[in-house]
Amino acid sequence: MAHLLGTRIMLAMLAAMVAAGAVFLLDADPTAGLVALVGGMAAALIAAGAGDAAAPPLPDPEPAPVIPPIGPVLEAIVEPLLVVADGRVGDANAAARRLLGNHIIGQDVRLAIRHPAAADRLNAPSGLADAAPINLVGLGTLDQRWEMHVADVPSGQRIVHLIDQTGNYAAERVRVDFVANASHELRTPLASILGFVETLSDDKAGADPATRQRFLKVMFDEARRMQRLIEDLISLSRIEAEKYRLPDRSVALAALITDVRSELLDTHDPRARAISTDLAEGVPAVVGDPAQLSQVLHNLLGNAMKYGRAGTPVMVRLWRDSANMVRLSVADEGDGIASEHIPRLTERFYRVDAGRSRSLGGTGLGLAIVKHIVERHRGRLDIASEVGKGTIVTIVLPPAMSSKSNTVVTQDR
Ligand code: ADP
Asked: Distance between CA 82 and CA 80 in Å, rounded?
């Protein structure tokens, strides 16, 4: 703008000077020439200003919005999406092609999504944009569950949107199973206690001191079993409630191992004497929650003592590995665990042999608790076992310096 105005004034002034020069040449009167020059310049300036006021330059036009073609937009969406025109698949993004096959473009949409419930909805007349989604089971793999939404767009096309609900269903199933299992685990000892109370209240059975003693012992053991289960359930829910809060204490694992070993020796469990330790020098501390890490040790040592053969050692090792991570392992010499069970051992209430676990005082929650605690500490849990030889459970934790830079990765079971 300023540049344009300057150019105009310059041109006007030039014209005034040319006019004044002409007066000089024609009249040879310097005064008339001077008047012509000044007047011309003033007139030129006024004209330049007036011209500016009369016709302000138009503002720069807004650039026209660039509308990207719909194809790349569809591709950028991670969930399967299909554009349907006249009952045929006009377009489908990569997720939809991966799920239903590359051949679906141009195909009748009811053949593309081979599912009876989907076909009914896709056959239905338009105007169902806000109708409830349809649940599809078995599209893709047999256990996959999808929610299908169909929306009509003004161009006459239909958008079919598939949302993967497999994870949500699995989480819901785990929750329902957990409540059912916990109730069952509590009901069994409770039923046993009630049965014995009833028997003892009978004058005949209750009068015999030996029988009474035996029944009271069973009742005590069952009550203790319920107590352990409730304590583990409370621990699990506390750990879950805190899972996104990073622990903030510096914990020296060597000292913790020594403390837990002494605590176990104090219980006078004969298997506690089998525990020996191999603690490397200079292992860095970890950022942790001492009470939770102590619980990890109790659970792992408890399992090694329970499932290791009588008279065999239980070895606790602590060292720093070549990747500078802190490793703690608990090894026993027992029956071991068949490989097909290993991935499921951290599920709540999963046991290889439920009868054996119960008879040894197990709740089926020990390794689930360990897994949750290790995840809260941004660590990893490895279980290696050989049937007939024994089991080594290792936890890998980041050293204190680097633990805060790790990201949260949790998965509920
Ligand atoms: P439990 O209270 O039953 O011991 P856990 O969650 O601690 O529950 O362990 C789950 C199951 O894993 C156990 O029931 C047992 O079958 C198996 N298990 C755990 N640790 C060992 C081990 N050291 N040796 C053999 N089996 C083990």
From this structure: 7
Return d(Cα 321, Cα 395) in angstroms, integer. 12
The tokens for 375 are: 């995840």
- Rounded to an integer, what distance in angstroms lies between the CA atom of residue 210 and that of residue 192? 19
Q: Where are the beta strands (DSSP E) in 120-196?
A: 134-137, 145-152, 158-164
Distance (Å, whole) CA 332 – CA 405: 34
Q: Ligand 1 within 6 A of 351 CB? A: yes
- Residue 117 φ then ψ, to 5°: -65, -35
Instruction: Give, for all 413 residues of the chain, the pLDDT tens digit.
Output: 444 444 444 444 444 444 444 444 444 444 444 444 444 444 443 444 444 444 566 666 666 555 556 678 888 899 999 999 888 999 999 999 999 999 999 999 999 998 888 888 888 877 655 578 899 998 888 889 999 999 888 888 899 999 999 999 999 999 999 999 999 999 999 999 999 999 888 877 777 888 889 999 999 999 999 999 999 999 999 999 998 999 999 999 999 999 999 999 999 999 999 999 999 999 999 999 999 999 999 999 999 999 999 999 999 999 999 999 999 999 999 999 999 999 999 999 999 999 999 899 899 999 999 999 999 999 999 999 999 999 999 999 999 974 444 433 333 33
Residue of 367, 381, 387 to test ligand 1 pocket, by largest number of atoms within 8 Å of CB: 367
**Ligand 1: centre distance to CA 356 (Å):** 10
Ligand 1 atom closest to Cα of residue 367: 6
Entry pTM:
0.71
For ligand 1, whether the C-beta of 330 sits within 6 Å is no
Domains of the chain by start residue, with CATH: 2-54 (no CATH), 70-164 (3.30.450.20), 179-240 (1.10.287.130), 246-397 (3.30.565.10)
Strand order in the sheet with 380-386: 275-279, 314-320, 326-332, 390-397, 380-386
Calculate the CA 62 to chain-centre distance. 43
Residue 269 — φ and ψ, nearest 5°?
-70, 120
Instruction: Enumerate residues 6+ apart whose C-beta is below 8 A from 277.
Output: 257, 258, 261, 315, 316, 317, 318
